[in-house]
């Protein structure tokens, strides 16, 4: 696939433009959801990020070095060797570029297919993902992700997002943007979706995946977020989604990942997300 599609920031003129008022309303919802700190809000309009999707094969040596430096700044237990091996397995990479042309964030992606109940299931798996602290609060990365992979998935009909969450901020994207997703704090995961999650976990992480818990258990041998990057306060634990995440993935502190699933279809995005990211 030609990975040339890209998207500018939300305040640029485009087909998917949203007003500053709409954007601020959405950011207030972030705050209510304990997703961001108020200090992050000021960065959204003062610092411009430009997101684009590129084939990983087209990334240069300097690009990879800059990406690893970001990982090393915010994660413990990272190594160049493991990072590059993981990157080589991915198909696409979403890059966030600032006004100076520097990489300030990225997310690696792999298109996957699974056999579930004699059906072929397609989706995208998001791997290493990080945004520099000075740009926390920007929605550019997810906007590019949503626009690109919703469009990509239309060729398959039903197209899933295979998401693994080692921090509550990643998991909180699901209730913030989607109508249906799993696991959910007050909904039982349907049998087919559970089978898809288990099939993904067993295929991608055959030695580490615990199907009973729905968690990838690394035994402390994997990268984990540095202290202070995504710490959870007592106040945040009052949020039922955050409390649920910590309860079913208590090993998140050591870097364990919770396997999550949602459909990347237009009608599965909530109305606010559709307007902001998909131009509806």
Explain the overall architecture.
This protein has 280 residues and is α+β, with helices and mostly antiparallel strands. Helices cover 35% and strands 23% of the residues. The chain is built from 10 helices and 12 strands. It has helices at residues 20-32, 38-41, 43-46, 61-74, 80-88, 140-153, 168-177, 191-204, 240-248, 271-277; strands at 6-7, 50-55, 75-76, 92-97, 103-116, 119-131, 159-165, 181-182, 209-210, 215-216, 224-225, 257-263. Strands 1, 2, 4, 5, 6, 7, 8, 9, 10 and 12 form a 10-stranded mixed sheet that branches. Strands 3-11 form a two-stranded antiparallel ribbon. The longest helix is centred in the first third of the chain and has 14 residues, at 61-74.
Topology:
Layout (H helix, E strand, L loop, with lengths): L5 E2 L12 H13 L5 H4 L1 H4 L3 E6 L5 H14 E2 L3 H9 L3 E6 L5 E14 L2 E13 L8 H14 L5 E7 L2 H10 L3 E2 L8 H14 L4 E2 L4 E2 L7 E2 L14 H9 L8 E7 L7 H7 L3
Parallel strand pairs: 6-7
Antiparallel strand pairs: 1-2, 2-4, 3-11, 4-5, 5-6, 7-12, 8-12, 9-10, 10-12
Helix pairs in contact: 7-9
Note the main attributes of this structure:
single chain, 280 residues, alpha+beta, ten-stranded mixed sheet, two-stranded antiparallel sheet, 10 helices, 12 strands, globular
């Amino acid at each position: 696939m030609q990975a040339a599609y890209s998207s500018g920031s939300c305040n640029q003129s485009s087909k998917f433009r949203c007003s500053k008022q709409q954007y601020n309303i959405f950011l207030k919802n972030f705050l209510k959801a304990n997703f961001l700190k108020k200090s992050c809000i000021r960065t959204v309009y003062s610092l411009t990020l430009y997101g684009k999707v590129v084939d990983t094969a087209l990334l240069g040596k300097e690009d990879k070095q800059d990406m690893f430096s970001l990982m090393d700044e915010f994660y413990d237990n990272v190594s160049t060797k493991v990072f590059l091996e993981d990157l080589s397995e991915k198909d696409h990479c979403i890059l966030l570029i600032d006004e100076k042309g520097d990489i300030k964030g990225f997310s690696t992606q792999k298109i996957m297919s699974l056999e579930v109940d004699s059906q072929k299931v397609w989706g995208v798996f998001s791997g290493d993902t990080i945004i520099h602290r000075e740009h926390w609060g920007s929605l550019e990365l997810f906007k590019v992700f949503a626009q690109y992979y919703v469009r990509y998935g239309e060729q398959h009909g039903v197209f899933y997002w295979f998401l693994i969450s080692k921090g509550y901020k990643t998991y909180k994207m699901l209730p913030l943007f989607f109508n249906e997703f799993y696991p959910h704090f007050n909904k039982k995961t349907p049998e087919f979706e559970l089978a898809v999650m288990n099939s993904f976990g067993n295929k991608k992480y055959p030695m580490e995946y615990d199907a009973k818990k729905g968690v990838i258990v690394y035994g402390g041998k994997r990268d984990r977020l540095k202290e202070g990057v995504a710490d959870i306060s007592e106040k945040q634990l009052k949020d039922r989604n955050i409390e649920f995440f910590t309860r079913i993935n208590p090993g998140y502190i050591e870097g364990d990942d919770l396997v999550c699933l949602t459909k990347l279809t237009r009608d599965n995005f909530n109305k606010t997300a559709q307007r902001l990211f998909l131009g509806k």
